[in-house]
Structures are given as structure tokens and as C-alpha cells.
UniProtKB/TrEMBL annotation:
InterPro entries: LLG1-like, LORELEI-like. Residues 11-86 form the GPI-anchored protein LLG1-like domain. Pfam families: LLG1. This is GPI-anchored protein. PANTHER family: GPI-ANCHORED PROTEIN LLG1-RELATED-RELATED, GPI-ANCHORED PROTEIN LLG2-RELATED. It comes from Actinidia chinensis var. chinensis. The lineage of its organism: Eukaryota, Viridiplantae, Streptophyta, Embryophyta, Tracheophyta. Signal peptide: none annotated. It comes from the Eukaryota.
Amino acid sequence: MARVQFSCTEDFESKNYTIITSQCKGPKYQATSCCAALKKFACPFSDKINDLNTDCAPTMFSYINSFGNYPPALFASLCTEGKEGLSCTDDEVNAGKPNGVPPRFSQSPMLMLAAGFLILLFNWF
């Protein structure tokens, strides 16, 4: 049975992607800087990105790739921390949040979502 997917309630179109585009530059993309930038940008929205009932993850990665003109699967291939995806519990990620409160989920499966988004993208062409 097909899963019903709802539109994302986060407005990723109007977000500032400079944190990623200024730190993750090619042609030799460095995992350290690219993944740190991705986490700084995405971790505040981890609860929405991790909600598989919405299109938040594909929408976010679509805008990241659009604004940064990144090659397909860049973040999925560079940013791996474990089977649960990228962790959003690091002090450096939470430093910019009010009261340093960590996101609702301690693990973010952005890697799996990025791979899923890319599979959907390639199925459209």
C-alpha cells in the first residue's frame, strides 16, 4: 500500500543556504566542511526532515542542490556517521539554538532520506 505523503510545513524555499554554499565548495568537496555545514543548516529542522509522512527531506535537498549546484548524491556519499544517519546532538550543532536545546530526535536519518530523494529524482528522468 502506498504511503500518504503530506506537504512540508517548513518553508525551505525562503531559507538562507549560505551556511552550506559558503563552506561546501567544489570541485574537491571536503566531507569535513560540507557535512558540518549540512548539519548546521538541517539539524534545527530534524524533526520535520525525519517525518517520513511529509516531503520535507526531498524538498530541503532539492533546494540545497539548486542553490549550491551540487552533483547528485554529494551529501549522501560524503556525510556518513552511522546507520542512523547524521547526529544532531553535537555541541557545535546545538550552539546556535536557543538554550542549546537539542532537537527532538537525537539521530537524523538524513543520509537515508538523501538517498531516497536521489532515487526519486532519477526515476523522474
